[in-house]
Amino acid sequence: MAILMGLISALCWGSTDFLAGQVARKVGVAKSLFYSQLFGFFVLSLLLFFYFEMSFVNASFFQLTICIVASVCNLMAMVFLLKALSIGKASIVAPIVSLYGAVTTILSLINGKPMTALVLFSLFMCVVGACLTSIPKSKDGQRESSGSIFFALLSSLMFGLGFWLQGEFAVRDLGVINALWVYYLTAVVVLFLTLLKKGNLSLPPISIIALVFSISFFSLIGFASLAYGSATGHVAVVTVLSSLASGVTALLGFFIRGERLSQIQWIGIVIIIAGVILLKL
Predict the structure, then answer these.
(1) DSSP designation for 243
(2) What are residue 112's phi and psi, to 5 degrees?
(3) Which of 37, 237, 257, 270 is the most exposed place for a label (fewest CB within 10 A)?
(4) Over the stretch 108-132, which tens digit does the pLDDT of each residue have?
(5) How far is CA 172 from CA 55, 66, 86, 90, 177, in A?
(6) Domain ranges across the chain
């Protein structure tokens, strides 16, 4: 069951990233993210109010502050991710963003976690892989946008910081569902104010709405699968398999959008994914 849940999580998150990039190209990053997060917020609110304890109500000021800071980091990471996907190749952006695992590991090491030779080797693989994917030209003769690589790296940094704060503080203090609900609430409020300031709160085209809801649905299923799989006691197995999401996104970019990469770029992608998996062993 743990293996199945991990694979479902990877499939859902990989599909989410790919679809989100498609929507961002058509309606913009802020609007696509706002409506997808809004749907997720409503669903989580129903689950929280009817099936789970609202532990955030009794949380201390420090606990809520850390949870909100983590949420802001993850929101910024999502914004950078969609920006990167909207201007670059999904098959390049996704593996670079998956470097958040290396960022989280480094923060854990700084916080006192023992460093092993495997960790050092894994971090080295991630760095080498990122360099290989970003430097060479693609087979179609076009060099990957430096902007997309820059935003992908920013996304990985913010995801790494956000997930580390969530894992070390928010989830431990509030629980998975409550911490996730705070994230969605933070995202909806910040994005609403952003769109309101721009006067751009109009609904996306009908043809896009179904796609936006699909993104949110896949994202929620991914989180649920990860949580359910972890509850079986095989946390390492589920986490490692879920990290294959970047590979799913890359394959979707290759088969659906026809993104053509050079051999050395494919090698870089494989090295990144392998490095991320080793970090989680």
Answers:
(1) T
(2) 115, 0
(3) 257
(4) 778 877 777 887 788 788 778 777 7
(5) 11, 11, 34, 33, 11
(6) 1-279
Separation between Cα atoms, residue 224 and residue 222, nearest integer Å? 5
Distance CA 242, CA 6 (A): 5
Using 50, 70 and 90 to split pLDDT, how confident is the model at 185? very high
HSE-up of residue 125 (Cα within 13 Å, Cβ side): 21
Reading phi first (left if > 0) and then psi (alpha if -120 to 50, else beta), residue 141 is in: left
pLDDT digits 0-9 by tens, 13-28: 888 888 888 888 888 8
Residue identified by tokens 């088969």 is: 255
Q: Nearest-CA neighbor of 4 among 232, 266, 259, 247?
A: 232
Handedness of CA 164, 13, 2, 117 (dihedral sign): negative
């430097």: which residue's tokens?
Answer: 135
Alpha helices (runs of H) in 232-279, residue ranges in sequence order: 235-242, 245-255, 263-279
Most confident of 102-106, 187-191, 268-272, 276-280: 187-191
DSSP string, 185-200: HHHHHHHHHHHHHHT-
